[in-house]
Write a structure and sequence with these properties.
By secondary structure, the protein is mostly helical. The chain is 77% helix and 0% strand. Helix 1 packs antiparallel against helix 8. The longest helix has 29 residues, at 36-64.
Amino acid sequence: MAAGRTYSKRTWAVLILGVVAAVTVQLLVMAGVGGEFVSTAVSDIGGVLIIGTAAVVTIRTAMRFGKGEPLRRQWLAIGLGIMLYTLGDVVWTYIELVQRAEVPYPGLPDIMYVALYVFLGYGIVSAAYAYRGLVKIKRPLMVSASVTLVTGVVLYVVLIRDIIADSSVGLLEKLLGLYYPVADLALLLGPAIFIVLVVAQLGRGSLAVPWRFVMAGMAMLAVADTVYQWLEWQGLYAAGSIVDLGWMLGYVLIAVGASIMRDLILPEPSGRTPR
């Protein structure tokens, strides 16, 4: 975090406890404690609790801003997006642990997973455009678009062209397999780079700090999603894979960004312990 600035105990708790919890869950799963079913339960339930907490932190941050304030709308959209992912994971967990069945693909969880991109993308892009009267946005837009395009070419080579060429799967599965990596770039990574470059132009760049955490989280999610899609397409994905850690840490970093924004915009009165 930025030197010379004090952040609340709440922010440090979200960062430290979130990272420790995510790593602990992953280590337990990789160690195979309790056998396959227990490991799957730890992975699924641990992910729901960690990512669900990130959603709550982000939504609570949004609600701290006044009604009608752009920050309230922007962070609420991001928080609701994370909550949609959590709900998708709840359904996934129910199918795996209660029904003892393989999660269908495409399936009910994908409805929530598809929708979350719209909320996250809207929240970040609208936040960036809120500064258009204060800074120049043309260059950040061009840079973020260029990075997205170059990354898209790489992604096409390693994943997308194989999905397109695979004639063994149905149309819906193929479209969904294409949607996720494209949405990762167009609605997560690209917008995250865009807003960091935009707010970095403001003074000493302190407002860029929360968005840097968001960008790091989005990048981690994009990588985890891409690796998951490749593993799933190859039939190699299993619950507890290392990509699960990427999802957990990605959402934790976004929640940390939300908490830092609250520290910057709504600092606690002296002597008061942040809640």
